[in-house]
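Could you help me review a protein record that somebody else here produced? My question to you is simply how this chain folds and whether the tokens agree. Thanks in advance; the entry in question is below:
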Amino acid sequence: MPASSENIYTPRQQYVLLILCLVGLAVLILVGLGSYLTAFLGAGILYVVLRPWFQALVHRRGWNRQVVTGGLLTFSFVVIILPFTALSLMLVSRIRAYAQDTSQIMAVLHKIEQKTGYQFTTEQGVRGLVQQSVSWLSGRIPSLASGLLHFTVIIGLMLFTLYFMFTQEEGFLRGLRRYLPFRAGTLRELGDSLRNTVNANVLGQALIAFVQASLTGLTLWIFGVPDALFWGTVAFFTAFIPVLGTPLVWGPAAILKLTQGHTGQGMGILLVGGIVIMNIDNLLRIFLARRMGNIHPLITLAGVVLGVEIFGILGLVLGPLLLSYFIVLITVFERENRIRRRTRLGHPLLPAETEEPLPAG
């Protein structure tokens, strides 16, 4: 008897197996690209940051798409990637230098112990703590310290992905609308959340961090704190942390000066830090209020802790983005359930629950 050529699976089984195959292949792809995931996420962030310029030059003024894309890639590499990498390298190298020679740190701690009359440190303990800090930072800062090849591949993938996101923008956006399992209104909410979070944590917060770090470094230099440039670099990264921020840098510097008997310099650092550096944050946020997203400080703080642990230093931006998306999806899920319930009961939908068309572009 000839073998039957009929498929052994029912249509429903074929559908379920197809979904399982897609999920399985997606998991394998994500696992394989796991160490390079930050490249694609970084490309997405740069796309959101640079897209207004791309639209203004290409869609409104009619400039050549390839030329504009090349200019934006050059700008992002020279103005964003290279300075960030230089800061990261400086931070890691200087902390490693402190780890190899803890005499300066021990001298400061001994003076504090003499002032307080309480011994709470040992050189071995301080050395171990500094070395652990170096190891933690080295694993979370994407720089040449983590390997030249890995660093080069990440930067190359990020720029290569960004190139195609701009040169094939229409197809990219059309694919998002077609394959993402969301309504048009939900896609608009997700897009607004992405734009607000990037504006708040990249454009706005980076500018605020740069101003605060510059003022911190200048203040420490004026009042005679050694390595003012290095501590200003540290202040740039700590400025992303809500509530704590730059006081993590100029606070200990003021204490150091006070314990050394330089009361005027210590009080000067405290006054400038507490009055100028701390309040410049609020002033800049008022000035940038129209261009920055409204991100709650608790979301930013929890997002920073979550993001740095998962994505490294880029988690300063990606962490709050993940939490913002989670909150948006919860809101969408709640609204979808409410719509289904009202539809099932035959109640008319509220104006906010009706589907709105997704704007083009």
In short: The chain has 13 helices and no strands. Residues 182-340 form one domain. The two ends are 60 Å apart (CA to CA). Residues 184-222 form the longest helix (39 residues).
